[in-house]
Amino acid sequence: MSEPVTLYKLIVLYMLSKVDFPLTNAQISDFILERGYTTYFTLQSVLAELEESQMIHMETIRNCSYYSLTDSGSDALKYFHSRVSPSIRQEIDQYMTENKIQMHDDVSVLADYYKNTGGDYSVRCLVKEKYSNPIDLTITVPNEEQAKNACRNWRDHCQAIYEFIIRELL
After folding, report:
1. Are the C-beta atoms of 13 and 50 separated by less than 8 Å?
2. 56, 67 in Cβ contact below 8 A?
3. Listing from the earlier edge strand, what are the strands of the sheet with 23-24?
4. Predicted pLDDT of residue 1
5. Mean of pLDDT values over 137-164
6. What are residue 23's DSSP bridge partners?
7. 8 A C-beta contact, residue 146 and residue 121
8. Band of pLDDT at residue 60, cut at 50, 70 and 90
9. What's the pLDDT at 2?
């Protein structure tokens, strides 16, 4: 059992090494499960073990898990790279080439909300890039429904909101 699990871990590490942004649990799962490498529950166990051993870092935003490769994970991948067959590496490379733009877009525009100490809801809207966050905006709304709506609408309107703010401030 440990040999296949090791391969699944290396596949995850290899996938994360191919991007300069975090991947969601869904993005990793889509690739691995579509190809029938393992089951959903085994994959979740693999992700948990990789995080526990600090080979990957996990951040949760709005019930979505985002994974990134750590230095320790990168070192492990370098050492065990050859244990991932060339055909699997080629599949991952091709998948990343075909889906990288969409995957990046999926993880670069984020919104989350929480109930603040005043009883209102704070909505944090963020656009992430590799080395900076061009916009990181927190607004307060009176109820949870408005907070949910703000989070839902952020992806479609972030560019226009950013342009408006820049135009008004500069």
Report:
1. yes
2. yes
3. 23-24, 64-69, 56-61
4. 40
5. 94
6. 67
7. yes
8. confident
9. 62
In terms of C-beta density within 10 A (0-12 exposed, 13-18 middle, 19 or more buried), how is residue 68 classed?
middle
Rounded Cα distance between 88 and 48, Å, is 22
And the tokens for 67? Answer: 């994974």
d(CA 12, CA 31): 10
- pLDDT value of position 37: 94
By residue count, the chain amounts to 170
Pull the structure tokens for residue 129: 């890039």
Is residue 29 within 8 Å of 7, Cβ to Cβ? no
β-bridge pairing 23-24 and 109-115: unpaired
Q: Is 4 within 8 Å of 38 (Cβ atoms)?
A: yes
pLDDT per position as a tens digit, 15-59: 999 998 899 999 999 999 999 999 999 999 999 999 999 999 998
Mean pLDDT computed over every residue of the chain:
92
Whole-model pTM: value is: 0.75
**How many Cβ atoms from other residues are within 10 Å of residue 139's Cβ?**
14
